[in-house]
Amino acid sequence: MNWTTKKQQAFQQDFLNWYQQNQRDLPWRHFHDPYHIWLSEIMLQQTQVHTVIPYYQRFLKAFPTIADLAATDEATLFKAWEGLGYYSRARNLQRAAQQICTDYQGVWPQTAAELEKLAGIGPYTAAAIASIAFDAPEPAVDGNAYRVFARLLQIKADVAQPKTRGIFAAAIRPLLPAQGSGDFNQATMDLGATICTPKDPACLLCPVQQYCQAYQTGTQLDYPVKTKKPKPKPVHLAALVIGDPQQWLMQQRPGQGLLANLWTYPLVSAADLQSDENDKLPADWSALLTQYVAQTYQLDLNITPVKGRAVTHTFTHLKWTIDLYQAKLPAKTDLAFFPGQLVAAADYDQLAVPTVQKKLQQRFLKDSK
Ligand code: SF4
Asked: How far does residue 226's CA lie from ligand 1's centre (Å)?
């Protein structure tokens, strides 16, 4: 940081004045309560602000305090989280609530270092909670901070590298005000979300334009520097809708791994049907699936494709493409070998289902008419 102290102070002043006058009115900003800040930050990791608000309000209604969250059962937790995906984050929220209730006697730790000991809380969330709830002088370094400060200070470090967080934290730290670092961090979030946007920064409206090195050199879009992530690996699957409109088969996923413990239609991957990975499958898997369910579930079914487009769903490292197939389930079928259960339509809403299952059900209801 080669700015003079005077320049640093002028920057702080301009930045915080702008925030005081222009901050977004968000429900979690109405209190400086760590539970509210934490919940909003975890939800915002995966979803846009306007989408998060109703989920945030619904979750707080279900669990008004961390003690309520700590004490709930997994099914109720997942129901309150439903629609947000990434269920491991909901599980971590509960684990951290339990840690606060047991290890900290219900009193939130106030430093970023202590907060990072809680489940699911990384350096960014810890700094956001510590600064906003407890006024700790911690820079909250997320995508917005990378973009804003990479441009302001022309920092060339690759933001795809984990170690770069430390470079940005060290660059931002001298700029934090002695008091009000929470507002400073929230000003960064708001500037990044509304003005210093990724593709089209509105530099003419920017309250800190006069300090911005990228603006002065016309290089805004060269920052932040980021190497490309590998593309998610494609995986081809079939979803089996077996039953009738009153009841159908559902499977709960294993307790570990992707979509752990959530319920979906039975899913069969291309790899399950191939004798080796070079084996080319036909476009229509009906015959192979009929054979597969006969061998694996001991079910004698007539499986046919559901006409219509495949459902796609992308996780961080995988891209699922799922074709839908259907079959009637004869009355009194023995399900002893099926690793799941027959679910009545009336009970379906009680199951915790991931977003991809919702997409599959919507597509099935539309395309099977
Ligand atoms: Fe971002 Fe432009 Fe402001 Fe620089 S001047 S911080 S590039 S909006």
From this structure: 18
Nearest CA to ligand 1 atom 2: 203
End-to-end CA distance of the chain: 64
State pLDDT tens for residues 125-138. Answer: 999 999 999 999 99
pLDDT band at 34 (very low <50, low <70, confident <90, very high): very high
- In this prediction, residue 83 has a pLDDT band, given cuts at 50, 70 and 90, of confident
Question: Which residues are within 8 A (CB) of 24 and not within 5 positions of it... i.e. 6 or more apart?
Answer: 49, 190, 193, 194
Which residue, 213, 183, 197, 199, is CA-closest to 14? Answer: 183
For 84-109, b where at least 16 C-beta lie within 10 A, e where not — what string? Answer: bbbbebbbbbbebbbbbbeeeeeebb
Q: Is 196 in the pocket of ligand 1 (CB under 6 A)?
A: yes
Give percent of the chain above pLDDT 70. Answer: 99
pLDDT tens sequence across 176-195: 999 999 999 999 999 999 99
Per-residue pLDDT averaged across 85-114, rounded? 94
Residue with CA closest to ligand 1 atom 1: 196
Q: Is 209 in the pocket of ligand 1 (CB under 6 A)?
A: yes
Q: Judge if the beta carbon of residue 215 lies within 6 A of ligand 1.
A: yes
Q: Are strands 263-264 and 311-314 parallel, antiparallel or unpaired?
A: unpaired
How would DSSP label each residue in 278-315? TPPPPS--HHHHHHHHHHHT------EEPPSPPEEEE-
Element (H, E) at 326: strand 318-327
195 lines ligand 1 (CB under 6 A): yes
Mean pLDDT value across residues 308-324: 94
Active site residue 41: yes
Q: Tokens in use for 199?
A: 């593709």
* pLDDT tens-digit readout, 260-279: 999 999 999 999 998 877 78
- Choice from 15, 151, 172 to test ligand 1 binding pocket (greatest atom count within 8 A of CB): 151
55 pocket-lining for ligand 1 (C-beta < 6 Å): no
Q: Find the 220 Cα to ligand 1 centroid distance in Å.
A: 7
